[in-house]
Amino acid sequence: MANRAQIPTSNSALIAMIADEDSVVGFLLAGVGNVDLRRKSNYLLVDSKTTVKQIEDAFKDFTTREDIAIVLISQYVANMIRFLVDSYNKPVPAILEIPSKDHPYDPAQDSVLSRVKHLYSAESVASGRR
Amino acid sequence: MEEEKKEIDFEIGMKQNQELKLEEEPQQQQKQVGDEHVLRFLDSVDNYLTLFESLSCTLRQGWLELVSARHSMGASRVNSSLLDLKVHSASTSLQVTPDIVDSMEEQPHFILRKWGSLYDGKCSYEDQNSKVDGLQGKSGSPLPRHRGKPQLSEEISPKQAPLMVDDQVQKKRSRSLSVFGTLVSPQLRAAQLSFETALETLVEIANMRSTMLSTFNGVHKELGVAKEIR
Known about the structure:
The structure holds 2 protein chains of 2 kinds.
Chain A: E1 10-19, H1 21-29, E2 43-45, H2 52-64, E3 68-74, H3 75-80, H4 82-86, E4 94-98, H5 111-116, H6 122-128
Parallel strand pairs in A: 1-2, 1-3, 3-4
Chain B: H1 2-73, E1 93-101, E2 105-114, E3 117-119, E4 124-125, H2 128-136, H3 160-177, H4 186-229
InterPro entries (chain B): Vma22/CCDC115 (IPR040357)
Protein name (chain B): Vacuolar ATPase assembly protein VMA22
Pfam family, one (chain B): Vma22_CCDC115
């Protein structure tokens, strides 16, 4: 169970990104970019040439690294690896599905809300917010 | 005799009522705890969705500013091929600490360290290490140099420390922008601020997510206990 996992303490954990170009560039402007000595970065820029395998590998890599505390993933990219995202249940790193320019945020597809949806009406979330 | 019987019956009735109350108290307490979990869960879901609406607005603004910067500076000057692939550490990172909820389970609490300073969602304050270095001038860190005033470093007032921190933050911001050239358009600077705001919102969302999941687990346990009692 996720709530029984120990929470690691960290003073300088990273924010990883799996998103489109504009989102990645924007967040890198805000200073979250990191490239370590092995030339491994904390982001994957997704475009039309990025394969699902590359996205899966990046997701698995970011969710197993100990220096990453939050993984930002565009929701349309998360839909490509939905099974992997929905089966993830650790408290850290936290997976946050973010909107992109061409794909607005849809609460009905959010994996965290899907996990808790049977405690409230899914219709009230989708319709009441429009 | 009849009066004595009545008194005895009354005492027996009182004792039975007291026993019933003692049995009901833990159930009422349990119900109150369960109601509290449900309310906290519903609040956290509402806050989570509200924060996502705010994030969407902020990101839309940031994308628009980025597109404007690309239009004014040229597409070749604002694109991902210019991203810094040299070894460098993130200027903006996170502090993660365990937060004990209901004295039972832990949930992570995230604090944003924007440009090396801590931001807890209400105010930003400098990193403790940089504050100590700035004020006391530890032997391991270089002191600010002032020509003709060698004693000035010993006389830095507490009011000047935030200014020094602001200078450091501005330097880090400029370094991040310098990837796209020395002279950048104001829209690119505006985009940088918008994405910084988006980061603050994302950290709040991450904390709300933790609260939502822990309260959900609490409600789930309550439902499980209620089913066992039946």
